[in-house]
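Thread title: Can someone regenerate the structure for this chain?

I was given the following input by a collaborator and told the matching structure tokens would be attached. They weren't. Posting the sequence so someone can regenerate them.
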Amino acid sequence: MMWRFVARPTAPAARVPHRARYASSAAFDRDEYGLFIDGKFVAASGEDARLAVENPATTERLAYVANATAADVDHAVASGQSAFEAGSWSRASVSDRANVLNDIAKALRKRIPEFARKESLQTGRPIREMRAQLTRIPEWFEYFAALARTSEGSVPPFSGPYVNYTQRLPLGTVGLITPWNHPLLIAVKKLAPALAAGNSVVDYLPVCLTAFLGSEQLLAKLLQSIR
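Best answer:
Regenerated them for you:
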């Protein structure tokens, strides 16, 4: 038996304008993002108070982001330490903290498409990759919620009439430095254990032309909504 292959010309595919293949900045709910401190958005205090951030795939401006100064960082740390010393989170029971982390995971899982879209726009990474990656981030909250519930101290032997034991306690305000290429994923990997331990958190994302705080600001608002 012989096979005969015939090549037939086809109509050329319509060219899609480069920019039309990407989502636009309309995916963001505001034109400017401030610093999220003490439960609200605030402007940066310096002269260069904001930076324009572009979609690296299209060079379209997505939004402006606050350009924090050292004074702004001090403000955030002081706010975090004040919340820590107030004790509503740092002295909450392990069970209560675990319940909140599980609630965060549930709320986050419902909004993965929204987060994935923002992550894709601000990093230039494919939306398919972002969807696959971000579907795993609720698991980090669930994992550390379970770890907090089951964490046990130890009773090392000690000479004399003493009881010697170890207990894990929160440290205070924890600084998280998040890289630009996977801002939400890596932020959550650090945020979940810090919160599970009872700490307050200040998250810092180095701002450049390929990333900004859009998805992390959205995460901050989501965390605030969990009671």
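Residues 70-86 form the longest helix (17 residues).
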